[in-house]
Structure formats: C-alpha cells, structure tokens
Amino acid sequence: MATYYSEEHEWLTVEGDTATLGITKHAAEQLGDVVFVEQQEAGDEFEKGGEIGVIESVKAASELYAPVDGEITEVNEALADNPGALNEDPEGEAWIYKIKIADAAQLEDLMDLDGYKALIG
Amino acid sequence: MTELKRTPLHSLHVELGGKLVDFAGWEMPVQYPLGIMGEHKQCREKAALFDVSHMGQVILRGENLGEKLEALCPQAYATLKPGKARYGFFTNADGGIMDDLIVSNAGDYYFVVVNAALRHQDIPHMRDNLDGVEVIEIFDRALVAVQGPAAENVVGDLCPAARDLKFMETTEAPINGVDCRISRLGYTGEDGYEISIPEDKAIEVSKAFLAHEDCEAAGLGARDSLRLEAGLCLYGNDIDQSTSPIEASLGWAIQKRRKEEGGFPGADRVQKELAEGPAKKLVGIKPDGRAPARQGVEIQCAEGNTIGQITSGVFGPTVGGPVAMGYVSKGHGEPGETVNLIIRGKPQPAQIVALPFVKQNYKR
User: Fold this and answer.
1) B14: which of B54, B186, B269, B304 is 20 to 30 A away, CA to CA?
2) Model pTM score
3) CA-CA-CA-CA torsion for B256, B235, B45, B83, nearest 10 degrees?
4) In terms of CA atoms, which chain B residue is nearest residue A63?
5) Which of A32, A35, A80 sits opposite B292 (nearest CB)?
C-alpha cells in the first residue's frame, strides 16, 4: 500500500489496482468550510485530468480532477449529508471515491509525500 | 503587476492570521483562522469586526450640499437632517446605477462612503458636477465595521455616545481619546456601526474592540454571506451601470418626492418603470438542494424557458443552505414561484422567495 499525491492536491492510497481518493489537508484548508460535494456515481469511468466532482465552499466552487484513468467503484455517500467532514478529516474518514486504476504506469507521474510537501512549501 | 494597496489595519490582519487576497486592488482578508462559517455566525450571534478601509471616504464642503447631490442621486438628500445617514446611488443618464453609497449629514459637512472599485469614477463625478462644492477624498483614515447584536456593547463600552445612536444616525465622538466618526449602520443585516478612525490609531482602536469577549475579526467572505442573507445588493454583482434602481428592487431607497418630481439622471426611465413595471427585477432565490447557485447560473421557469440569471449566490450559514439573488423577466418573480437553476448543465429546483433570507435586526 502506497500513497501518492497530485498537483491538484489529491491523495491516492493504492492497493493493487484499486485506490482510495480524497483531497489533502492542505487543499481542505485552502478551500475553507466545505458546504457541498457533487460526486459522480459508481461505475462512471474517467480519464486522467477529467472532472470527477465539485467541492463547494461558502464562497466558491472547485473542481475535482482525476489524477489517473480509471473507474469509480464506490462513492463515500456520507459526504452528501456531512460535507464538513472534508474539513475535519480529509485524509481519513472523508475520502471521496474508491476507484479501479486503469493504467498503473500513470502513478509514476504523481508525487510521494516528500514531493508533495515540497510542492506546498 | 501593480502592487496591492494596504489599509492601515494590514499588519493587524497578518498578526491575526488573516488569509489575504486581492480585492479591487486592495490586499484584504477574505477570512481569519475562524473561517467564513464561524465568522458569519459570530456576527449573527455576538459581534464581528471588519476592515472596510478600502472603501472611499469623502468629505463634501459647501453650501446647499443636499440640493446639489439631488442632481446626481434620486434620493431626497436636501431634507437629510444633521446627524442622519441615508443609503443612495448615483444614476447615469440612462437610469443605470453608477455606484451605491451612504451619504451622512455631519452638520457642517457631508460624509460620503463609496465602493472601493469605483473611487476613481465617483470622485471626479462629484468634482465635475457638484458646483461650488469642495470634494475631499480622505486617505488618512481607516473605516472599521463592528456588526452584530453585541456591537452596541463592544462599541458602547469604549464610547457611550454610540449607545444613543439609532439605525442610520451618525455622530463624532472620541474612542480611546481619538476623534472618530461613528455611524449606526452596516452591510450585514445586523445592528452595528461603521467607524472612521485616524489611520495612526486604527489598530489601537480595533484591538480595543477585539479585546471585548464578544468580538472577533471577520473577513470579506463572511461579509458577503451576511449581506446576501440580509438581501443587500453588491455593486458589480447585483447592480451595475445597466440596471436601474427599480429593476434592482431598490425603489424603497428613492423617497416619494423624488419619485414624483424626478430631476435626477435617468429619471425618465425610473418613472416609466415605476408606472409600468420593469422588464426584469431582482428577487431572492432559494435552491431546494444543497448545491449553491453561483453568479451567472441560468434561471428557467417551470416550462423550461430562460427567464434570467443568478447575480449572487453563496451558502448561507445562518439559513443552513444555499441562498441567491438574481434577475427574472417581467411576468415572473412572485414569491413561491418554482424555477429551475441550471447548475453544471443540470436543472436544480429552487423557489423565488421574499428578501431578506434572514430578518434584519436594526436598532430603530
């Protein structure tokens, strides 16, 4: 099991060809109070860089972009009723999707924790 | 890149951990560590302090200032009594709103506050059109708003004269030994004050307010969600050069004599729209779901035709759901009407509602 980070401030914890995806603590802090999360459905396929959801704070909407190609296998339904969980525990309880990774080679384009820490300074 | 301008409170924002952003060319705090939601609730429940020093403060000196202002504004400023403040706007020849403002009769002068982004327009506009009036733009004073049900105690503890003011009244009084202009008004729907403070004392006085247990700093993010819940327009979003006061549902801000007599720029259009109804009007919109409807979202009627657009939309922390305002065309806009908002391509049901979303809590 390894965790990767994207430049779009997502984390991806990979086990075999599946992964859990969410936004980083840094991203949650930047967004401020999250009030609404628009998620896609299990079974939806996506390409790297494609929009796979929207996270809204009081003031603004931010798109969630896919860090790799894949398919959504499970949606964290709890976020619909409690979007604020994304501020409280974005790298734990408040994961957004479980996905199936189509091309594991794309993981090489992502960062490890040290690389991500360097990115956000 | 042009350097952002800083207010006299800049170092206090940094000290308090404010998240600073570019707002109309000014480096302003959008929020502090408490967050927009917490700061919003702080203002509704206790008191919040906002730096609004980016707004333009102007002093007018001369004879018959009220009469002269009536040539630029549809408000009855000739009858504005000393110690009173009144909301108004400059209109253009087409009846559009050039800017909205607060005019106070300070006795031997008038005190005017205009939007930050329009200082460069409003000051020359007044200089060119107010004959025999000295128009003095103030650069050496901060403007701080203390808003919320506890504002009277926060300000009154340091300045007893503030307690005696009613909504839309203004006075000059010392705070911590510094002469300040204190006006009982604001942009949150709550009771509160806007206080003009000499810049070298602005941090000291602000810290004295913040030392009160019921007062916390709040940023422009909370200011926006508070004003929208209170049904107050934001220039550039809800009103602009093309929208008339009647379209913007601001008819209440034009006094009866001025509606009848006219005599201000664009009076023909305003009077025509008063008689026949405007082609579109600004209404409150409450989405049924949790998805906020932002500026630019299309509004469709139940039959699926486009009837207008959202001009402001946020998540309302006090309402506990999204709130918005927008224009709908003639024949629409009665409270209770069901509409659809096209958010990211999908229709989301919403209701037209009467404004404000949260009852205004002024001390009259």
Assistant:
1) B186
2) 0.94
3) -50
4) B344
5) A35
